[in-house]
Amino acid sequence: MNNSQDSILISGRLDGKQRNHLKRLFDMLYTPKELAEEIGLNIDQIYRVYIPAGCPNERDIRNRILINGALFCDWYIRTYKKQKLDKDQAFCLNCRKGVKITNPINKNKKDLLYIECNCPECGRKLSKIMDYKRGKID
After folding, report:
1. Of 84, 88, 82, nearest in space to 115 by CA
2. Which of 80, 79, 92 is nearest to 124 (CA)?
3. Which mean pLDDT values do the consecutive 10-residue runs of the chain (138 residues) have?
């Protein structure tokens, strides 16, 4: 993929609540406005991100864009797969990708063991949870 295609895919990611709303879509045709309202995103994201990225759509006799909800859900899941991180990687929210952990600092907070480091590309402070031990209930 080229760089512009990568930036389109990065900008099209949904948060957890929006991904859960995808499951509510029916096997019917939605206008972009209806689809945006159902998922909880801006209509511009459909026109500027999803349709150029290859979202399955069709046009009616009045040349309006219609999107099948079930096909859109399947397409989104295939296109925006969950990113897997290696043990030596942390996710940077600025760069929107997994980056290699450099100069890690181990920290404890009650029962939580985590690592802090800085992103090698943008310098943002990153945290990665390594272990969480829940307290015992007596």
Report:
1. 88
2. 92
3. 55 88 96 97 94 94 97 94 88 88 91 92 92 64
| Structural domains of the chain, count | 2
Q: How far is CA 101 from the centre of its chain?
A: 21
| pTM (two decimals) | 0.67
CB 65 within 8 A of CB 34: no
Contact 92, 119 (CB under 8 A): yes
Expressed as residue numbers, the domain containing 110 is 89-132
Is beta strand 58-59 parallel, antiparallel or unpaired with respect to 29-30?
A: unpaired
137 belongs to a structural domain: no
What one-character-per-residue DSSP string does 29-75 give?
EE-HHHHHHHHTS-HHHIIIIITTTT---EE-TT--EEEEHHHHHHH
Neighbours of 96 (CB within 10 A): 14
Q: Do 58 and 99 sit in the same domain of this protein? A: no
> Could you tell me if 53 and 97 lie in one domain?
no
